[in-house]
TrEMBL record, chains A, B, C, D, E, F:
CDD domains: MoaC_PE
Name of protein: cyclic pyranopterin monophosphate synthase
Keyword Lyase listed: yes
EC top class named in words: lyase
Tagged with keyword Transmembrane: no
Cited Pfam families: MoaC
Length: 186, 186, 186, 186, 186, 186
């Protein structure tokens, strides 16, 4: 076993116990070796689960005006529609992007983008739902991130200084841990 | 043509000229219709190109301590290695994730993650190089985003309040626009 | 919300009501904004579902003869076998190709190709089955289309004039809408 | 060698020569065995290449009216924009869908969809360009097919009787065979 | 039907019966034609299933020493961690790699790699679990193969003579056929 | 930098020098930290490169007879054709499967499978060619492995005891290291 080889080479039984104290909380690493492990969900019940994530990309005044003009004049909002589709597609590839993420059959992926003049940003909010045995926060976060990256791609000829900010899970329902809402770190 | 249908339905020649003023800068939308378009790079010369992006994910003190412990005791740093590999793999799938992005043969993808105690965060910096006809900033940004998402996935059992911040391109070399470095929006 | 931004910019409450009349039938667009939306299937029951699609690619006499010869002499029918495998694989990637399509676990994908001398064509018929919460007509259509595209690829050195025709769903079982069979538009 | 096994089992030297007459034209099958083979392009020169494909999906009057309404009232044309993005993305995955297709770096993918009242259809025309060693007709056809499949997906709640028609390559430039335009089979 | 065409061209009713005797056991080929077919699992019950596979890659003494040194000194074991992640990701793509394999939602993928001094090899053992309607031996084998290929990739600058050996399923639980353990062919 | 963090935590300058002696040969790990790194190929010349790999899967007498019967009677060899196509497709996804592998435009992928009665096995030999800046041995090995896995999948209802053996690169041409042929480890 790799675990054994590593432990032997470290010869470090003392520190191990304290590490385990932590590692038992970090579900994606093996308690003994700290190695990455997928969590088994085979015996977990399938329940309705839902997660919401959000984030934003801050644009220069010029880039914001261009997006707004594209929006108002043609009312087609294409840059945002392309970003929305990219986000939806990305949610479906989450388990291929995030190594220890389980594949899941998603029942809903709802990606919404809006221009926010106050912050000169495009804001994205994503809701994902499933009936499955693990949560869908990674899918919501991945969709949000890729939608924002797509906005960057479409505007980068005008503004290379854009910054993506505040990408986080804001709400979660279902599953063992029950309902949950984001609050800042203490 | 869809373009014509749309314009006719809008009957809005006046606003069109001002829109075009902007749209000619927004390379991914058609000047006339505002529709999303891929930019042709068929006749652009292949030159050496390089881009760097960075970003960070802010953790609670507890989650940070767990990552640090995993690092120090086993020196395996697996959470970070998994994130690094995820970032590298994501860079290669950029054109599948970002709709109007051209496929590119990447010559180098270098994703580095480090624990930053001062900000209680995992910081990620990615360098991508190619010999090709378009830049690689989207690849560098995508790798960075997915590496940070992977850190979220691995730590989410301890801390759901993590926030991804300041994801941006910091440097670019090669191509028509020459060398470039990030500076804040004025 | 983007919806609100768009509606405001249109200032067009009158036309909205008539649009909604239609949009409520077009399940993939938001009733209020006309924006693309994925339909939620999280609470739909999992039932046995089945769909059949078909289509054909019309070949020149020469290309048809070559395919037939390959068939008769070696009895390997490789061009058709390659197309069959391509169709099966494509069915599994449907949700990655069609943006608002839900991922589904397919229980059966049966792609059959046959030479049809009367029409100088390769005819393809695909059956897909699942136990799931949405129908599988997109999977059957996608498999059929990709199988025919593969025939094009294999014969294009002899005949570039091939045309794909009559690709459609011919039958559907299961789900809320019950059994259904194709009939021409009135 | 499989070739030998097969030939032996057929014991059919006579028919072989005539088959070869054909097979030498069918570049994707081995001359001797009729087996599927990828064509080597390693030593072919990289030249500018371009291909155009088109096709259409015929809708019921009702479905056509819904698409048109979505188009005219919101001027967002989302169903068509989603189909356009799906087509662009599909072009990039062509070599993964079509087994004997070479991967290629595409320089341009331009997918255009338009409502055609005369034929009650959505018409799609795709242009693909590359600087590479093989043609891009498969990419143009694949983008067109997937764009039309996406229209089917978005309208199928109103009309299951839609039929995809006349999907074909209409024009090709560059490469050894030079410029070419579609004409009907004689 | 292709089946009929083929049979007719073979004119070989006599041999057919004996072939069918076999083919009925080979579940992935059509009984009549020998053509490849996906097995339908739509009506099979979803049960807990588990499979284990293993294999090894034999290294030169020099390459083994390098891997061991990387292991012992930094205790990071990166070559093995990268291979482990590659194996986990590959398990999730099994149905895209193996044409007649059904997609499955995997509940656990556990890939372990260890240095084996006695055989100068890296040994890999993979366990996969699902609650589904077909077995997971292909997923376990695919993960094992790709993990070993990754070791080859990382060590090939030192040793091109590496050989992958003894890749096989060693254990299977669940499903109609019940528990099973590998034993050599008689 | 992670490198620094790790080194500091190990406090192990002495052992570092010996590790570096090795690591400089192992091109996919950072010399200082042992961390996985992609090798930069941006400035390497594009030359013609070619690699051959082979391997085999050993079957029970019964499974071998079934495959042979399928081969001889229908002369369709479908199990082998499916495996061949799977191998070709897998070669194109190599850089997605092997984390530190560069994407490459492959000019030729030739996968051949043959029944070998002497060893009761299916033997696979793959040739891959490219004009590129890195070698193609990983593509040849991946195609071979996936072709053999596909044989396993198609025969597993008859024989679960199959074993894959001797998968290795046998020949390599082009690139800095020149021509090379496999020989056993000394």
């Amino acid at each position: 076993m790799l675990a054994r080889v590593l432990r032997r080479s470290l010869g470090d039984a003392g520190s191990r116990s304290s590490r385990c104290g932590y590692a038992s909380k970090m579900t994606h690493t093996d308690e003994e070796t700290g190695e990455a492990r997928m969590v088994s969900v085979t015996t977990k019940a399938e329940t309705h689960r839902r997660a919401q994530a959000q984030g934003r990309i801050v644009l220069s005044k010029e880039a914001f005006a261009v997006l707004e003009a594209n929006e108002l004049h043609t009312a087609k909002g294409n840059a945002l529609v392309v970003a929305q589709i990219a986000g939806i597609q990305a949610a479906k590839t989450t388990s291929q992007l995030i190594p220890l993420c389980h594949p899941l059959m998603l029942g809903l992926i709802d990606v919404r983008l809006a221009l926010n003049k106050a912050t000169s940003s495009v804001d994205c909010k994503t809701t994902v739902e499933t009936k499955g045995s693990t949560g869908v926060e990674m899918e919501a976060l991945t969709a949000t991130s890729v939608a924002l990256l797509t906005v960057y791609d479409m505007c980068k000829a005008i503004d290379k200084h854009m910054v993506m900010q505040d990408i986080r899970v804001i709400e979660k329902q279902g599953g063992k841990s029950g309902d949950w809402q984001w609050a800042p770190h203490q």
